[in-house]
Amino acid sequence: MKIGSFYLEKRTHVRWYIQGLSILIALLGAFGVGALLIKTTGANVGEAYAALFKGAFGSRNAFLETLVQSTPLILTGLAMVVAFRARVWNIGAEGQFFAGAMAAAWVSMSLHDTLPYPLLLAAVLGSAMVAGACWSLIAAYCKIRFNANIIIVTVMMNYIILFLLSYLLSNTWREPGSYFMQTARFERITYLPRFFSSRLHLGFFNALIAAALVYLIVWKTSLGYSIRAVGVNPVASQFKGIQIKRTILTVMLISGALAGLAGGGEIAGLQHRLRLDISTGYGYTGIIIALLGRLNPVGVALAAIFFGALVNGSTHMQIFTGVPVALVQSLQGIVLIFLLMSDVLTRYRIRRMPHAD
Amino acid sequence: MSKRTWMLAIMLGLAGWALAVQADQPKKLKVALITNTTVEEPWNTAAIQAFDRIIALKPHGLDVELKVQENVAMTDGERVLRTYAQTGEYGIIWCQGQYPDAVEALHEDFPEICWVEAGSAYKPLGGNVYWVQMYVHEPAYLLGMLAGMITENDTIGAVAAYPFPNVNLPINGYLRGALAVNPNAKMKMTYIDSWFDPARAKESALAQISSGADVIYAERFGPFEACVDKDVYAFGHYVDQSPLAPEVVLGSTLALWDPAILYIVDAWWEREVDGKEYDGPMKEVVFSMAEGGSGVAISEALSAKLPEGVMARFEEAKQSIMDGSLKVPFSEKQVLSD
Q: Does chain B have fewer CB atoms within 10 Å around its N or its C terminus?
């Protein structure tokens, strides 16, 4: 790529500590810009960041709540890892999240008095995964059968499911006599168990297990080899006998199931009723999480906890320093920008054009 | 010591004790106000304006401090409310947004806090949970009377959020008011199925105007622009909205939270000072227009241009509501378009 008299040359090998360093520099840059934003509110930068940290990790309860906030992000982040490793740009985790939530809600509402307790929870979470996978399957089919652009299809599917849910919540699923578009609260038997007398629920541990499984699948199986091979070079993979279409399909199913599980976990572990606003864009934030975690399950878990901490700490920061919660939302965007910049700088080298004469 | 010295000593002791008790009384009260939407939303603005007046009033000599947290989603309510409660600094947590699940989950963990639920979506919990409600059907009735008197086509309009009880209530009041002075009045009614959708509200108002309505009650944001374009009168909701479009907004209902806030501050004070436990009633608490719980704002510039007798009739009805001789019917049923 040429920029004026400079061009970018791809580095052949980037050492792991350079990658780590680039993330660190990106985060520092983002927090630096964030500091300027805090300045504009008239607050003390150090105090604001200290309050942010304290709100996220300052006490046992704060830390556990941070983990609660990170739970859906770990799963949507993992969903992106699987897809992006194969260079399948699934931007539909938001819709798949809602598909999972809707299936979990349906099972909670209709099967709570037919299935015994542990089986019921398995059905709630299992149906969420199946529903997420099915919703993602539609996009995968469009890609495989018609070679439709997967980004566009998955984004459109996000809107379709929201309107479907909106229809259900204003008609059949609506809580009778309620003021809001929401289902009735589910029976207590459908709730995921909680731990440490906090809101930390089983969903968090499911997310950790999912991270381990994603690692095993992507790096320790032949399927994972195909996924990564297709991601690096689809043409060469095809010549080596990897079935591209089947890989895309599998990747989309796994990715959708993970996002669906995130939705199911939020429903069964936290909200206990279905509403249109159960997601604050977890599907989209998952993309940033995956990039921040360098498409690596451990990185994703850490990045998700970092973002969960930002959200959880922001309330504490607003209470004690008056810096609005919105700062954290902009901070998340700034992190992404710096991350993309540092990504280019670590993977490419800037060189001066050799003179023609 | 003589008897007189004893008496003096006892009196001094009593005075000292009284002073000590006085000194023990709280001087400061921190209130957290949590909202679903932005503070610019009239529902929230009205509450914040009322708090500002209470802060100036200093009830029980208290320095009341208000902390507002806006845009808290209902699904995030439990986390945010708990964060406020855990600071231990807030005597009152006032939910101007709707967080029934969160308050239900939290109120027993924080018995020293007075939890206030403002609005319709709640159910009574008693104890340290107080449910205050806002009814503005009386001012809406008065605005309806104005509408009925000034409409030239005998057609009035209203643009509202959802056909929910607390939305239908002022709309019914408005319609009854119009019919009271103009039995021929026809009503154009649109529910925009959103709490905040200015574009849709404006379109709805335009549709009503083109089908003959020449005065619009804007229960939500948006219709004023249409009214300015087509030059018809409009009414605002919850706060005096005439500054938004002074050329058309003739009046607004006012949601005055002041008596509700004082009622809550008293409950908090009685527990702090007299040790009286919280005892939230098992029903919603409402203050009528006569009790100062609601009111009506009228644009002086515009009302001066109205035909003779209109404002006199309005003032007379207002007086009758205030002294109780006029009872505005209470109806929460959905209003249909004529």
A: N
Do β-strands B129-133 and B285-286 pair in parallel, antiparallel, or remain unpaired? parallel
At B69, is the secondary structure helix, strand, or coil? strand
> Per the domain annotation, does B2 fall within a domain?
no
Domain count, chain B: 2
- A55 contacts in chain B (CB < 8 Å): 83
Residue B137 and residue A195 in contact, taking contact as beta carbons nearer than 8 Å: no
B80 chain-A contacts, CB cut-off 8 A: 315
Query: Considering the domain boundaries, does residue B40 fall inside one?
Result: yes
Assigned token pair, B242 = 């005439």
* Same domain (yes/no): B105, B215: no
Amino acid found at A173: W
3-class DSSP state of B250: strand
Whether residue B225 is contained in a domain is answered as: yes
pLDDT at A206 over 60: yes
Shortest distance between the Cα of A34 and any Cα of chain B, in A, equals 20
User: Cα distance from B108 to chain A (closest Cα, Å)?
Assistant: 14
Token digits for B34? Answer: 């949590």
Strand partners, B95: B34, B117
User: B244 with B167, same domain?
Assistant: yes
What's this model's pTM, rounded to 2 decimal places?
0.87
Q: Is the ipTM of this complex over 0.85?
A: yes
What are the b/e assignments for A326-346, b being 16+ CB within 10 Å? ebbbebbebbbebbeebbeeb
* Residue at A336 is within a domain: no
Q: Is residue A145 exposed (0-12), middle (13-18) or buried (19+ Cβ within 10 Å)? A: exposed
Q: Does B38 contact A at CB distance below 8 Å?
A: no
Q: Do A180 and B73 touch (CB under 8 A)?
A: no
What does each C-alpha distance from B126 to B86, B107, B117, B118 come to in angstroms?
21, 10, 11, 14
Q: The domain that contains B190 carries what CATH number?
A: 3.40.50.2300
CATH of the domain at A230: 1.10.3470
Q: Based on the domain organization, do B150 and B200 belong to the same domain?
A: yes
How far is B133 from chain A, CA to nearest CA, in Å? 14
Range of the domain at A151: 45-322
Q: Is the domain of B92 the same as that of B106?
A: yes
Task: Give the total number of structural domains in chain A.
Answer: 1
B73 contacts on A by Cβ (under 8 Å): 277, 280
Residues in A closer than 8 angstroms to B334, CB to CB, are none
Report CB contact under 8 Å: B78, A312: no
Q: Which of B37, B66, B26, B92 is nearest to A319 (CA)?
A: B66
Structural domain contains residue A1? no
Is B333 part of a structural domain of the chain?
no
In terms of residue numbers, what domain contains B201?
137-255+293-323
pLDDT band at residue B16, thresholds of 50, 70 and 90?
low
Q: Work out the angle at residue B26's Cα, subtended by the Cα atoms of residues B20 and B27, and round it to the nearest 5 degrees.
A: 105
Q: Mean of the pLDDT values across residues B145-172? A: 94
- B93 and B164 fall within a common domain: no
Distance from CA of A179 to the nearest CA of B (A): 6
Res A7: pLDDT: 84
Give the tens place of pLDDT for each residue, A21-71.
888 999 999 999 999 999 998 999 999 999 999 999 999 999 999 999 999
DSSP per residue, A179-225: SSSBPPPPPGGGSPPB-TTSS-BHHHHHHHHHHHHHHHHHHHSHHHH
Instruction: Summarize pLDDT for B162-201 with one digit per residue, the tens.
Output: 888 889 999 999 999 999 999 999 999 999 988 888 999 9
pLDDT in tens, A328-356: 889 999 998 998 898 888 888 888 877 65
Interface contact A308, partner B, CB < 8 A: no
Q: With an 8 Å Cβ cutoff, are B83 and A275 in contact?
A: no
DSSP per-residue letters across A265-310: HHIIIIISS-BTTS-SSHHHHHHHHHHHTTT-HHHHHHHHHHHHHH
On the 0-12 / 13-18 / 19+ scale of CB atoms within 10 A, B146 is: buried
Mean pLDDT of chain B: 93
